[in-house]
Amino acid sequence: MKDTKQVTIQKGQRFPLTIKRMGIDGEGVGFFKRQVVFVPGALPGEEIVCEAVKVSPKFAAGKIVKIRRASEGRIKAPCPYFEKCGGCQIQHLSYDHQLKEKKDLLRQAFERYTKIPLNNLDFRDTIGMENPWRYRNKSQMQAGMKNGKVTAGLYEPGSNRLTDIDECIVQHPQIDKVTNIVKQIAQDLKISIYDSKKHKGFLRTIVTRVGFNTGEYQLVLVTSSKDFPEKDLFLKELKQRLPDINSVVQNVNPEKTPLVFGDETIVLDGEDQIMEQLDHLTFKLSARAFFQLNPEQTIKLYNAAKDAAGLTGREKVVDAYCGTGTIGLWIADRAGEVRGMDIIDSAVKDAEKNAVRNNINHALFETGSAETVMPRWEKEGWHADVVIVDPPRTGLDKELMKTLLKTKPERIVYVSCNPSTLAKNVTELSAGGYTLESLQPVDMFPHTSQVEAVALLIRPRKKK
Ligand SMILES: C[S@@+](CC[C@H](N)C(=O)[O-])C[C@H]1O[C@@H](n2cnc3c(N)ncnc32)[C@H](O)[C@@H]1O
To answer: Where is S-adenosyl-L-methionine bound in this sequence (predicted)?
Structure first.
């Protein structure tokens, strides 16, 4: 039979709309004549007049014409760039409401993709920050030119218009200082700015990373070529204004690509890495090394994973998708043995160095995919009691899922940045005999719609 469903909403049509929930990008979601409507900026519980700006057979996108009844959580976003920048989506919602909505995003995903009754589950409230500002340790600001002035910032959502940002209130203040000084020096020395449309110009991106607990900081200038004629003058000016900077490096990215970094990195001044400390562990971070962006919340996230792992000091633990080994090293003091793997060789090398630096000698890291390395270890007779996974947004690879269901570790601790793939993977693990014991949302990125979660799955014990 043909699908007889008609498009009931016309582009430009105005209609009243009650916002039922928050969508994954922080937008309001409502229903008009049973058709789903997504409205950026609208908040759950609000009654608005909406204008349809895009319609398709499956959904409509709208904009707010008028708010008839505002959410009690609605506030004035404190950042002057909020409407234009696209970095934060829900600054206009009070922080305690944000934490509730993030838990709700997880609930929605589990209701949609699993049959698990959430009422009986240990489904915890979102772990938030006491002061949810100035939490980011790194920024990547695209350089641009506007009316003869050097600018740096982020692109407006869905456009190639750059918003020049002098101050970002979710970043460490030193990052603003470094970015503004670099903009000024680039302006004074007339350093040419990269134009992505013409694929011309030198300075592409200003990347700054700060060690929150060490105070060390690094500037990375991403440039389109190695040749840097103003280098000496640039460094002289920079050192005058930032005499305590620990590391200045240049990364060369000659490609026409939206990716920020290229393959070649050159140290211009100071060290090639900066130090950071997370509680009892220290890490050395090179320009391209992955490191969690919110150090205060990282400690809470990793502690949630450690608690879920329920270690006694004897277990063999896998840190799958280990990056620079941070989770594995974090739990190592309570594990018998730790093994981790990641597809990025430089991250694995960093993990090995981080283990040595922290005197952890019962952790082994290997380069390779989780889906190939994990079954090999099992085949070699090394059986994991606990597996911690922290996959990319796409979730667990099918082959890894098969290995888990075949080798049946006692506990699986799933650290996830994507509620949908988490819920889908939990369904598969449940079908394979695992029970979802607890679900802990953690807010790693206040004022954005992103939510991280730690799920604990346990294998029912065999009856004797
Ligand atoms: C969300 S990050 C986790 C990083 C780390 N656990 C942390 O907290 O810093 C995901 C990691 O998975 C790695 N990765 C992606 N696909 C992979 C695969 N098939 N096997 C192993 N690692 C993979 C990426 O290189 C990245 O380091």
So the answer is: 292, 321, 342, 390
